[in-house]
C-alpha cells in the first residue's frame, strides 16, 4: 500500500495492534517490557516477557497481567513521576527491550514519554507508540469532549487519539537518525521506532522550543493528510518481518518455559 492511497478517510487494514504487539514480544524474545498507559491491561496481558513493567495513574485492570511473564511491576503514577523516581537497576533490572507508549494523548506528554523511554533503552530496543495515525480529524482534537462531540454520528464516535500524531514530524525534524515506521495497524495505527540512541539529549534539551513550535502546527485534516502523503505506510506483516529475528533472551529457556 502506498502512502498516497491511504487518505485520512481510509481505515487501517492490517492486523489489530494488540496482535502486532503480542507477536512482536514473542518474535523478539523480550526480557524487559514497559507499557505506559495500561488501562484494563488488554495489551499488557498479551505480551510475553520475563519482566513486565506497567505505569498508569489509574489502573482499571480486568485481565491477567501476569500472563506469559515471570515478574510484573505496577507503578500507579503518572509517567513523569515514574521516570523522575526510577532507579533502573532496582525497579526494572536493566535496560528495556520493548516499550509501548499509550498514556496521555497529547503530543507534549508523548514527547516526554519518548525521550525518557529512549534513555533507558539500548540501541537495538524497540519503541512502539499508539494512536499516532488518526483516520479522521475529530478524533485528533486535544480535548476528548470536543473529539466526542465532533465525531458524533460518524463511524468513529467516541474515538480519541488526541494530537500525538505530531510526534512524527517532531522526530522527522529533530531526530533524523532514528528509523520511524508508520504501521497500518487498526484502529489508529502504530509508530515503531528503532535505531535508538539512549545517549541523545536533543529532544530533552529542545523540549520547550519543540512544544512551542509544534503547538502552532495546525491540528487539521490537511496537516494529518500530509503525514500520510509524506511517509510510506507499512503493512503490519511487513513491519513484523522487518523487526523479526531479534533475540534479547540469554538462552531463551525461560521464554520456552513460560510460553511453551
Ligand atoms: C488508551 S488507555 C491505554 C490502553 C492500553 N494501552 C490498551 O491498549 O489496552 C490510556 C491510559 O493512559 C493512562 N494515562 C493518562 N495519563 C497518563 C500519564 N500521564 N502517565 C501514564 N498513563 C497515563 C490512563 O489512565 C489510561 O488508562
Automatic annotation (TrEMBL):
One of its GO terms (molecular function) is methyltransferase activity. It holds the Pfam family Methyltransf_24. SUPFAM superfamilies: S-adenosyl-L-methionine-dependent methyltransferases. It comes from the Bacteria. GO terms for biological process: methylation. The keyword Methyltransferase applies. Its EC number is 2.1.1.-. Keywords: Methyltransferase, Transferase. InterPro entries: SAM-dependent_MTases_sf. It is an enzyme of class 2 (transferase). This is Class I SAM-dependent methyltransferase.
Amino acid at each position: 500500500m502506498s502512502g498516497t492511497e491511504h487518505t485520512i478517510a481510509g481505515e487501517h487494514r492490517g492486523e489489530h495492534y494488540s496482535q502486532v504487539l503480542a507477536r512482536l514480544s514473542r518474535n523478539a524474545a523480550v526480557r524487559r517490557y514497559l507499557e505506559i498507559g495500561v488501562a484494563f491491561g488488554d495489551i499488557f496481558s498479551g505480551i510475553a516477557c520475563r519482566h513486565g513493567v506497567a505505569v498508569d495513574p489509574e489502573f482499571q485492570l480486568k485481565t491477567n497481567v501476569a500472563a506469559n511473564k515471570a515478574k510484573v511491576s505496577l507503578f500507579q503514577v503518572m509517567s513523569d513521576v515514574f521516570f523522575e523516581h526510577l532507579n533502573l537497576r532496582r525497579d526494572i533490572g536493566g535496560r528495556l527491550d520493548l516499550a509501548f507508549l499509550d498514556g496521555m494523548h497529547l503530543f507534549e506528554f508523548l514527547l516526554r514519554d519518548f525521550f525518557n523511554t529512549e534513555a533507558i533503552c539500548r540501541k537495538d530496543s524497540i519503541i512502539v507508540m499508539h494512536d499516532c495515525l488518526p483516520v479522521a480529524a475529530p478524533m485528533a482534537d486535544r480535548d476528548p469532549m470536543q473529539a466526542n462531540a465532533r465525531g458524533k454520528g460518524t463511524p468513529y464516535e467516541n474515538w480519541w487519539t488526541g494530537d500525538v500524531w505530531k510526534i512524527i514530524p517532531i522526530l522527522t525534524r529533530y531526530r533524523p537518525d532514528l528509523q520511524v515506521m508508520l504501521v497500518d495497524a487498526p484502529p489508529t495505527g502504530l509508530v515503531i521506532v528503532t535505531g535508538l540512541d539512549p545517549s541523545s539529549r536533543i529532544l530533552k534539551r529542545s523540549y520547550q522550543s519543540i512544544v512551542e513550535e509544534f503547538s502552532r502546527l495546525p491540528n487539521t485534516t490537511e496537516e494529518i493528510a500530509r503525514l500520510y502523503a509524506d511517509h510510506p505506510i507499512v503493512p503490519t506483516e511487513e513491519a513484523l518481518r522487518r523487526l523479526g529475528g531479534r533475540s534479547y533472551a540469554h538462552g531463551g529457556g525461560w521464554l520456552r518455559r513460560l510460553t511453551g
